[in-house]
Amino acid sequence: MSDETVFYILGVALAVSAVVLTFVGLKLKNFPGRAFPLVVLWFVVLVGGATTYSVLQAKEHEEAHASELHEAGEHIEEAEEQPRENEAGAEGQEKEEPVGGSEGGATTLQLAADPVAIAFDKTELTAKPGKVTIDFDNPSAVPHNVAIEKDGKELAGFEPIAEAEEAVSADLEAGTYTFLCTVPGHAAAGMEGTLTVE
């Protein structure tokens, strides 16, 4: 028999005993009389037993909850490791497939995600033609990334990261580009800006 079952049995017995003793007390003038010690002992046993099994049941629930949290933590760790593996692959592709013409210049730009809101700290970036690198810092626990697009076509990007830093690079010729977070809904919420190369 489980602790939970015993707890409910004792609780029901306690409630029934209270009701029965109330009716008996109303019917008999001298109640409880000599039976007073037995009545007190009976209630002490029921209350003590119910309390004990209530504590045991609470411990069981706490252990079960702790086990669920541990399993959930393991799943989160596994999920975080997979994007990192994909990041490495994405970086390799960026280096192998530069886009646009290069005039030999190199620009490194700083960009960060807001710690609490779905937003970048800048919506306008300017660079010289050539290799353009955006160093991205995401202090938030919400995953974000940065991709560079031209006319709706993604030219470079990386997988979303949380509480981490990453960089995206592309060889760009003069023109207007878009930088944005590709996590669904984030660009529409404001994580989008204009990258001017001139």
Structural overview:
- The chain has helices at residues 3-27, 36-96, 186-189, and strands spanning 105-112, 124-127, 130-138, 147-150, 153-157, 164-172, 175-180, 192-197.
- It is of the alpha/beta class.
- The protein folds into two domains: 3-88, no CATH class; 100-197, Immunoglobulin-like.
- The strands form two sheets. It has a five-stranded mixed beta sheet with strand order 2-8-7-4-5. Strands 1-3-6 form a three-stranded mixed beta sheet.
- A hairpin with a 2-residue loop joins strand 4 (147-150) and strand 5 (153-157).
- The chain is rod-shaped, with a radius of gyration of 34 Å.
- The N and C termini lie far apart (78 Å).
- The model is unreliable at 88-103 (pLDDT under 50).
Helix/strand layout:
Blueprint: H1 3-27, H2 36-96, E1 105-112, E2 124-127, E3 130-138, E4 147-150, E5 153-157, E6 164-172, E7 175-180, H3 186-189, E8 192-197
Parallel strand pairs: 1-3, 2-8
Antiparallel strand pairs: 3-6, 4-5, 4-7, 7-8
CATH H-level homologous superfamily name of the largest domain: Cupredoxins -  blue copper proteins
CATH hierarchy, class of the largest domain: Mainly Beta
Principal-axes shape call = rod-shaped
Biggest sheet character: 5 strands, mixed
CATH third-level topology of the largest domain = Immunoglobulin-like
Span of the ends, CA to CA: 78 Å
Number of domains: 2
Q: What is the N-to-C order of secondary-structure elements (H for helix, E for strand)?
A: HHEEEEEEEHE
Q: How do the strands of the widest beta sheet line up side by side?
A: 2-8-7-4-5
How many strands? Answer: 8
* Radius of gyration (Å): 34 Å
Helix content: 40-55%
CATH architecture of the largest domain: Sandwich
